[in-house]
Amino acid sequence: MKTDEYIDDLINREKQTEPNPFLSTVIMSSIETPVAKKMTAWQSIAVAASISTVIFLGMQLGRFSAGDKSTALNINDSEIENFIYYNDETHE
Amino acid sequence: MTETEIIHSILSGNTSAFKLLVDKYHKMVFRTAMGFVHNKEDAEDLTQDVFIRIFQSLGNFREQAALSTWIYRITVNLSLNYVNANKIERFFELTEEKILNIFNRRDDSRNPEQRMIDEERDQAIRNAIDKLSDKQRTAFILSKYEELSQKEIAAVMQTTEGAVEQHLQRAKASLQKKISSLVGE
Prior knowledge:
The structure holds two protein chains of two kinds.
Chain A: H1 3-15, H2 23-32, H3 41-66, H4 83-87
Chain B: H1 3-11, H2 18-37, H3 40-57, H4 67-85, H5 87-104, H6 112-130, H7 134-144, H8 150-157, H9 161-183
Helix pairs in contact in B: 2-3, 2-4, 3-4, 4-8, 5-6, 6-9, 7-8, 7-9, 8-9
């Protein structure tokens, strides 16, 4: 076989490849499906800014409603020492 | 319904009339795309892209050339953009396909060694076609895959018949040079 024949043989095999029988249907559906419009730069900025604002306001509200609720727990352990009275065998 | 009537119908909002164009031209577009990408799935994706582009720019069609010439022009432009943009991905895809072809053809009477040699040769031919310059490759594919005359190719490429003849001669010489050593001529 000569080079030309090898080339023609490959081309003929590729030419005989049949596309998917539903290709025209797929093409039509892609054309008939409305493509979502891309957002403009200003729209993207507005969306990002509103998300940031909502997050910031949420944090502020959280801080405001929580207030300063720190409490000190005082434990007077001198009362615990009174248990010695019950454990002391001399008082029985 | 003539092509002009179909085009006017689509432009006036009758999207379903576009199916007439798709049915008539999708195999032509697919075959041309196959010449550029050598892969069924990629050629189908390209065919879809070509028809979306045709639909979007149908209003720009001036009817100075035949509709088929205009469609060929879009197909060639999108195919060249596609292959130039996806060189690395396509290398891996074609290698994977080559390996699968060697091992998956159980109905093939050739022995694995012969199949591998044939696949190597096919791949070398594909690579040689892919390495032609854009103009040589376009002229070669339209001539070999679509069997267009030099006049028709010249219309698609917006050049002269003489230039097309030169592109074809150079493409054939280049392919001969690259492949002859491999096939032992």
